[in-house]
Amino acid sequence: MNASASSSDLCLVVDGGGTKTDCQVVRRDDERFTVVAQGRSSGCNPNAIGTANATTAIAEAIEAARKAAGLPDETRIARAAIAVAGTVDETRRKELEHLLRQQSLAGECRVFPDVLPILSAAATTGTAAGLISGTGATAIARNAYGKCFLAGGWGYLLGDEGSGFSVGREAVRQTLLELEMGAGLSLLGQCVSEQLEASSVAAIKKTVYQPENHRDLLASLAPAVVQCAKAEDKPAITILEQTIEHLLILLHRAVSRLMPPGDDVPVAVMGGMFRPGSPLRQPLERAILRTPGYASVRFVDEPLECVHHLLHDEAFSRPILFAE
């Protein structure tokens, strides 16, 4: 990094979730952004750790990125676009934004809900939809007037069908059924039993319910389901087929609230369930495109690339509008 580079050329993008916060220092060249360096810290969802702790986590990620870029302390950053989980609520978002501005992290600093950037991967303006399936599952849609609607994201106690959590939960349920029937374990059942280090109904129940964070424990089983599906294990394939159905319903729920039937809506998809090589990618894309009303599907592998778009003048200043 050239420390003498104009500070007006340098910006920050942050993607903060419940488990980690990623930051990039980027250099602006007209309308393009080049990554200079990256940094990471712990999770920053203010609903989970409080606004003050979220501010600290974000500042630590930014400091790590600045250090990796070799930026002197006096080097100013022109603009920071900070996408954070748990900030759809405007009051919470403004509170976090106020605390971050007090840190003087950049000349301009704005906090965005972490569900917004995926829309830019589908279309920078106009109608668009995004589908996010990681530990949880959420769909977001935007109409031609810039108003957004969020569907799902209820959390594992109330929903999250189509998520890594729900995939892992169904894998455990399938394993328990196989054990109770006594007909031997499928490949999926064997993988679940091995990963949980439990081979009986009682042991599996104890393992699942014992830890405080059983949500993440169940979500951690999702990759095993994906691998078993690749090996043509029928129970695993069935679980992933159900997952696609749940995600289509979730996507339709978001889009139908804002747009009339027949609109050709571009869709972007992101999350751990759709990493490169996932057997869910092609089936989901086919299912979306054969459903009337959807124009295209794009899979996003790097969430921070979506946040880059929020640095553009129009996107940075655009009002954040959510329909109830």
What would you note in describing this structure?
This is ATPase BadF/BadG/BcrA/BcrD type domain-containing protein. Residues 14-276 form the ATPase BadF/BadG/BcrA/BcrD type domain. It holds the Pfam family BcrAD_BadFG. It is a single chain. This protein is of the alpha/beta class and 324 residues long. A hairpin with a 3-residue loop joins strand 6 (128-133) and strand 7. It folds into 2 domains: 7-114, 2-Layer Sandwich (Nucleotidyltransferase, domain 5), CATH 3.30.420; 118-324, Nucleotidyltransferase, domain 5, CATH 3.30.420. The longest helix is centred in the C-terminal third of the chain and has 23 residues, at 234-256. It starts with 9 loop residues before the first strand and ends with a strand. It contains 13 helices and 11 strands.
Features:
324 residues, alpha/beta, Nucleotidyltransferase, domain 5, 5-stranded mixed sheet, 13 helices, 11 strands, 42% helix, globular, disordered N terminus, Euk-type_GlcNAc_Kinase, ATPase_NBD
Number of folding domains?
A: 2
As laid out across the biggest beta sheet, the strand order is 10-9-6-7-8-11
- The CATH homologous superfamily of the largest domain is called ATPase, nucleotide binding domain
Query: What fraction of residues sit in β-strands?
Result: 15-25%
Instruction: State the name of the first-level CATH class of the largest domain.
Output: Alpha Beta
Q: What spatial form do the alpha-carbon principal axes imply?
A: globular
Give, in order, the helices and strands: EEEHHEHEHEEEHHHHHHEHEHHE
Q: Count the E strands.
A: 11
Organism: Aeoliella straminimaris
Domain ATPase BadF/BadG/BcrA/BcrD type: 14-276
Pfam families: BcrAD_BadFG (PF01869)
InterPro entries: ATPase_BadF (IPR002731), ATPase_NBD (IPR043129), Euk-type_GlcNAc_Kinase (IPR052519)
